[in-house]
Amino acid sequence: MSATPAPPEFAPADAAALPLWLVRPGAEGADLPAGIGELAQNWARAQGFAGKPGQLCLLPDANGAIAGALYGIGTRDSTPRERWLLAKAAETLPAGDWRLAAIPEGVDATLGALGWLLAQYRFARYKAAEAPAARLVAPAGIDAKRVIAMAAGEFLARDLINTPASDMGPEDLERAARALAERHGATISVIRGEELLTQNFPMIHAVGRAGAQAPRLIDLRFPGEGPALTLVGKGVCFDTGGLDIKPAASMGLMKKDMGGAANVLGLAEMLARLGQTRNMRLRVLIPAVENAIGGNAFRPGDILTSRKGLTVEVNNTDAEGRLVLADALALAEEEAPALLVSMATLTGAARVALGPDLPPLFCDDDGLAAQLHQAGLAQADPLWRLPFWAPYESMIEPGIADLDNAPGGGFAGAITAALFLRRFAGQARHYLHLDIYGWQPSAAPGRPKGGAGQGMRALLAALPELLQ
Which Gene Ontology molecular-function terms are recorded (predicted)? Predict the structure, then answer.
């Protein structure tokens, strides 16, 4: 099967598009627009259309053909529960070109249009899948190029996460990075296998050396001038848990353990499409490994010396993501970027605390954290701040080494993992860490079950302020 097609475009502005009215409930049924005429109003009432969220009513003309449609968006109180207002409309409307006849007060046309595009996603690499055939004319006043770029980055991240490890090992992840670099004029260098030892990336090598494909560090640089932004994404292409093997139920989704890498590549895709990489020095680092089981696998109790020189006691080989990220962060901080961001499917503790939709954000700067939080809310890409809680530093200090990769006790797992990573990012002016899930556990409008982008749009919106 071919790979998933490119993200959809909007319908041409001059298309003979059918009108779509967005309707809220009224005092008696739906608050129907006067512009549709009395006949259409009577038809909608006879069909029981009440403006409930996701409710659709097709309107006929005098010959029985479709003349337009009404789509319920619910009350203002119900709207926040519907992350993608128009996604369900895109999935249920018949084929053809559609335009928004009016945009009610309180409706974000940009997010509506993005939801429409996101509803077109289908993972079709192994099985044919038809996307919805209803196209939207870009609503007046939105930045259509930006919306398409956001959809493109999301589609890329979803595709990478959804691809199983048989076709998305470290070599394949490298190929995906090379393809992105070629599309956007970036340079790429890769350190593989035993070269990781000679060039001082010992923990990336230790975690990945038992894998079927050689571990590697992927390094992309985009041409541009301005403040330095470095994105580091966890690229564990499959995680067995290593010698501390996961049970089968926990291993089933581990193709998604490279979700951090997928998301930083998706964000880079957005930035490059929008030309924003010209105004910064963007670097993307991905430690790509498979945490496998073999005679040469790293062991519980091993003490590893990191690139930064800090020693790490391995108390659980299933806490491998922070090890590979640590070497990559140590490389990143050597250039002291203005902003250093890590994204990783790092801890189950984050999911227990906040669930699959709400990734924890760690940041020492109150102002930057607030900006990113607000950007996430505005972009329907929510983040929730958790603290780099200094009193817990002692929990990651085992006594016979500088650091412990898996403190016992079961407390504050997301926080202690973030504290571990911060030890390797200290030279950056600002450091942000996002502990993402990267997966949609059940289908929702615009969000099919499977790989998911998280934090990309929030960062895209906030970066102009974050890099000041």
Answer: manganese ion binding; metalloaminopeptidase activity
- Are 9 and 137 a contacting pair, CB within 8 Å? no
**Residue 405 backbone dihedrals phi, psi, to 5 degrees:** -80, -10
Nearest to 380 by CA among 139, 152, 99, 107: 107
User: Is 63 a member of any domain?
Assistant: yes
Per-residue pLDDT of the chain (468 residues; tens, 9 = 90+): 344 456 789 999 988 999 999 999 986 777 899 889 999 999 999 999 999 999 999 999 989 999 999 999 988 775 556 678 899 999 999 999 999 998 988 899 999 999 999 999 999 999 998 888 999 999 999 999 999 999 999 999 999 999 999 999 999 999 999 999 999 999 999 999 999 999 999 999 999 999 999 999 999 999 999 999 999 999 999 999 999 999 999 999 999 999 999 999 999 999 999 999 999 999 999 999 999 999 999 999 999 999 999 999 999 999 999 999 999 999 999 999 999 999 999 999 999 999 999 999 999 999 999 999 999 999 999 999 999 999 999 999 998 999 999 998 889 999 999 999 999 998 889 999 999 999 999 999 999 999 999 999 999 999 999 998
Whether 136 and 157 map to the same domain: the answer is no
DSSP assignment of 1-29 equals -PPPPPPPPPBPTTS-PEEEEEE-B-SSS
- 241-to-270, 292, 351, 377 alpha-carbon distances in Å: 32, 7, 18, 34
- Domain end call among 84, 110, 142: 142
- How far apart are the C-alpha atoms of 322 and 333, rounded to whole Å? 16
How far is 239 from 253, CA to CA, in rounded Å?
9
Give the CATH number, domain containing residue 104. Answer: 3.40.220.10
Residue whose token pair is 């203005």: 338
Task: State the DSSP H helix or E strand holding residue 204, giving kind and residue range, or none if neither.
Answer: helix 202-208
Cα distance between residue 20 and residue 204, in whole Å: 53
Q: Give me the sign of the Cα torsion angle 139, 144, 146, 147.
A: positive
Tell me whether residue 125 is one of the annotated catalytic residues: no
**Do residues 130 and 206 share a domain?**
no
Token pair for 371: 């900006």
Both tokens assigned to 373: 């939080």
Tokens of 19: 């009108």
- Distance CA(255)–CA(257), nearest Å, equals 6
Query: How many separate domains does the chain show?
Result: 2
Among the listed residues 99, 146, 216, 322, the single catalytic one is 322
Range of the domain at 98: 18-142
Active site residue: 122, 125, 178, 246, which one?
246
* Torsional class of 336: left (φ above 0), alpha (ψ -120 to 50), beta (otherwise): left
| Residue 322 a catalytic site member | yes
Cβ count near 255 (within 10 Å): 23
